[in-house]
Amino acid sequence: MVRVSRRHLVMVVITHGHRRPEIMQAIREQTESLDQVIFAGFTHEPAERLARRLVEITPKGLDYVFYSDSGSTSVEVAIKMALGFWRNRGEARTRIMALEHGYHGDTVGTMSAGARSAFNASYEPLLFDVARVPFPHQGREQQSLDALEAACKAGAAAFLVEPLILGAAEC
């Protein structure tokens, strides 16, 4: 964040490539040929080509691709899709599950699914309850599987799992 004046606040977000030269070049090239727009009634050939390729390499039955603009948004959308799926089937599944100590983003839904801490304490009244599954530490994998199975039997709508690549979780 950069403070511009007492009245204005400008947020700067850099999410693409950490200035790696090959990624920066690809971004420059894309700005010359692609519009950055929401995919609501709009598409373009590179997006369609990638979607077809993704469907080809995923297991049978995974026939749709949804593009999102960030990690937080993708998790938020996944939560909405899961809740909508069960509601449209007429089943009252609204419980979201997530691994303990996880980080999923900074939107209200993703903060709800992530570990509670000083960083999101101010928003506690807005956050919804999430079933926590113990992280499968070596030697305690069965405890995690048992907790996951119990939560599924209780009618969970979704289980959020993200890789530890970014190292945001405390495992």
Quick summary of this structure?
The chain has helices spanning 21-33, 45-57, 71-88, 108-113, 141-153; strands spanning 2-3, 9-10, 95-99, 131-133, 156-160.
Strand segment tally = 5
Percentage of residues in helical conformation: 25-40%
Strand order of the largest sheet: 4-3-5
- The whole-number mean of residue pLDDT values reads 82
Q: Main sheet?
A: 3 strands, parallel
- The number of helical runs is 5
Quaternary state of the chains: single chain
SSE run: EEHHHEHEHE
List low-pLDDT spans: 1-13
Taken from the alpha-carbon principal axes, the silhouette is globular
Distance between the terminal alpha carbons, to the nearest Å?
29 Å
